[in-house]
Amino acid sequence: MTQPRVVERFKKRTIWFHWIHTVAFLVLVVTGAILFFPGIGGAAAGGVTRSIHRIAVVFFVGAPVIYSVLNPRMALHFVKETLTWGIEDIDYIEAAPLYYFGGPEENMPPQGHVNSGQKMWQFVVLATGVLFFLSGLIMWFFKDTAPAGLFQWSVIVHDVAFLLAFLMLLVHIYTGTIHPRMTESLRSMWDGKVSVKYAKNHYGKWYEEISKGEGEE
Predict the structure, then answer these.
(1) Where are the domains of the chain?
(2) Secondary structure letter of residue 3 according to DSSP
């Protein structure tokens, strides 16, 4: 029996930010691959692809900047949440392999607004975002003035950051859209809501907090 989704997990502004940032990253993935492997894009690997890549960068960088200016409390909460790890996170990571392959759900420790797996994804997004920004800044604006060694290292850092982010994105897509135990995750990123059962099973600690009026927005 389908449970009514009445528990709000995400505000509309967060949902808009998520999709703008996601679409920008996917465009960067495609255009970046064409620039890195010119053969797969043929003639498109020239100035047009580079221009599209740079336009996507504006949205990729601009979206979190604007969101942080408009919602500084939530932005700080995101950073704090991402960098705060405890015993419950270690317990989750230890239990996660069996859980994701069908093990007992009750063996998973209660989680906050995001579980430890999602915190790993957030950490990768935050860390690679900083690396993308710094290395991309040098590659875009200081190509002709930066020392050759610094420019080459920027390219390497940019590529390594891309590989890390892309691999984690694949995991994020699988667990958020395909895994049978996470069926409400994708829908929650459209309307911001999950069912009470889903909230209790996946974010028990958070659900208990908001039920008492203590949770974060």
Answers:
(1) 8-72, 107-217
(2) P
Query: Beta strand 193-195 with 5-8: parallel, antiparallel or unpaired?
Result: antiparallel
d(CA 95, CA 125) in angstroms, rounded, equals: 23
The class (CATH top level) of 107-217 is: mainly alpha
Measured in degrees and rounded to the nearest 5, phi and psi for residue 5 equal -95, 100
3-state secondary structure 27-38: HHHHHHHHHHCH
CB 78 within 8 A of CB 114: no
Q: What is the pLDDT of residue 152?
A: 94
Specify the pTM. Answer: 0.84
Token pair in block for residue 44:
């498109």
CA 24 from chain center: how many Å? 12
pLDDT in tens, 207-216: 888 887 654 4
Instruction: Specify the long-range contacts of residues 56-59, CB closer than 8 Å, at least 24 apart.
Output: 56/24, 56/25, 56/27, 56/28, 56/31, 57/24, 57/28, 57/136, 57/140, 59/20, 59/21, 59/23, 59/24
